[in-house]
Amino acid sequence: MSAAADSASSSVRGSLALNVMRLRTFIALFAVLIFFAFAAPNFLHTANLVLMSKHVALNAFLAIGMTFVIITGGIDLSVGSIVGLCGMVAGGLILHGVDLRNGYTLFFNVPEIFVIILVLGVLVGLVNGLLVTWLNVAPFIATLGTLYVARGAALLISDGATFPNLEGSPALGTTGYAFLGSGYVFDPHLPVAVCLLIVVALGAAYLARWTPIGRHIFAVGGNERAAALSGVRVNRVKLFVYMFSGFCAAIVGLIISSELLAAHPATGQSFELNAIAAAVLGGTSMSGGRGTIGGTIIGAFVIGILSDGLVMMGVSEFWQMVIKGVVIIAAVVVDQAQRKLQQRVALQQMAQLA
Length: 354
Hints:
The protein is mostly helical. It has helices spanning about 1-20, 25-40, 45-70, 80-95, 110-135, 140-160, 180, 190-210, 210-220, 225-230, 235-260, 270-280, 295-310, 315-354, and strands at about 100, 105. The mean pLDDT is about 85.
């Protein structure tokens, strides 16, 4: 009787600890909010919260795409370079158009430029997917190579220079580019970028939970061989997640260049690290098969608030990198501990039923 009671008590403690681990992202978000509310001046000021929401949105877009990739057991290191490349291509199209080499130059209006850049992001993602699926290159190596190729292409477009003054020309129909990055919808404190994030996040959450492709993404990450034997087209699923990640990176490239009305080839450097950190902190398992869009969004808020709060406190960029690295390591350690605890609790529950 005593042994049974001890087993039941241990199971309860394990379940409690497991629930705390599952809520770790909420706990972390609450902790950083409370800390910076007291430690950073004007942290809760409306203007700062609006600006911070835009910064969080940029990381959240990348983290959403990264979440799907990591769930399948992959990784995408190229998203930061895709951001820079897409911004440079957009800037080049606005300022210089496309030289047709017959004495004519073709200019596109802003909506057309948006579509072109989104397609470009998808195509770069497609290249990543093809490297991983058709050529069987490890995702880390494939996307690392694409990182360099995309960054080099961004530098070659302008020979390393910035494309400034992207206001566009009324005569050419290229004006209005600033709306995506600097515009507001409905309320003067609701940026367009945040509204777009809400749409993308809801769409991604619906896709992950309610569609066949969403179920296939989790199946591939949980057990790729079993998924293939059950009829899942594994390669198509992997192509989709890398293309979606490229799509999200293209959105960020558009938003940043639109907000600054300038495009620089170095834009997006190390963005992939923040995206990975947000996804992992939000509960996405680096071993694949587990993750949620909601958790990733909260993780993006934690990383964004942490970054902006440290800046407001005057903490050097070098220490910010150290702190982010510690956060990533801690998130992975907690994730591994959660997996082991889940297995132990499951075994204890099975023993009680037996």
